[in-house]
Amino acid sequence: MIGGKAGLSLFALFIIILIGCGGIRYSRLAPDAENFHPKKIVALPVYVGPFEEARDIIDQVIAGVLIEKGWFADVVAPDTVKGQMQSNDDLRKAVSGYIAKLRTVNFSDPDLSRKIGEGYHVDAFLVVNLDHWDYTVEREDKIARVGLGLKLVEAGTGNIIWKACHSIAEDYWLFKPDLPDVAEDVAKKMLDYMPH
Fold first, then answer.
1. Which one, of 152, 2, 168, 130, lies nearest residue 75 by Cα?
2. Concatenated DSSP letters of 135-164
3. Cα–Cα distance list, 117 to 20, 38, 62, 85, 180 (Å)
4. What's the pLDDT at 15?
């Protein structure tokens, strides 16, 4: 048994290790990320997959958290993106073409990326995927779960500067947590890791 100062030191080290494990599930920076400081950013409309009912909620959550951070001179919200896509055929084709290539062949097209940047007058854009949005049961535990995938893209080059994914699963017994609140917690935690 270790006692005295050595025991206290080991206990303190154990606590520090536990606190340090509170990150997100996956986060990867590009080598030149430390030199990337966008002033204007657009949050593209979220890809929700089978969770269509969450589309507007996640769009608002992401835009709200980006604005709340105060890192950017301007944040173009997904509602603005949708409105401009409806009235500008070239911009709609650029965004939908970019997203399609990114999803199907994992290619960040620099030409389409540049068109998105020019169309929205931004330095960067955020691609958002909704991976989980549900209430489920795991081994008799009731869980509210929200998971997101984010990619920060340099508009001028198409370089993916940062990508991350994370989910939060909140246990509950009687009262279901609101999924929008869980989504906000996920977004805040993830965006803390995003370069700005």
1. 152
2. EEEETTEEEEEEEEEEEEEETTT--EEEEE
3. 36, 11, 19, 13, 29
4. 36
Q: How many CB atoms lie within 10 A of CB 61?
A: 25
Secondary structure of residue 17 in the 3-state scheme: helix
Mean pLDDT by 10 residues, the chain (196 residues): 48 37 87 94 94 96 97 94 95 97 97 98 97 94 97 98 97 95 98 95
Task: Give dist(CA 55, CA 32) in Å, integer.
Answer: 32
Smallest CA-to-CA distance from 76 within 30, 38, 133 is with 38
Query: Residues 6 or more apart from 50 whose CB is under 8 A from it?
Result: none
Shortest CA distance to 44 belongs to which of 107, 101, 141, 122?
Answer: 122
Residue 165: alpha-carbon gap to chain centroid: 7
The distance from CA 150 to its chain's CA centroid, rounded to whole angstroms, is 3
Are 95 and 128 in contact by the 8 Å Cβ rule? The answer is: no
Amino acid 171: pLDDT: 95
Q: Is this prediction's pTM over 0.70?
A: yes
- Burial label for 15, CB within 10 Å (0-12, 13-18, 19+), is exposed
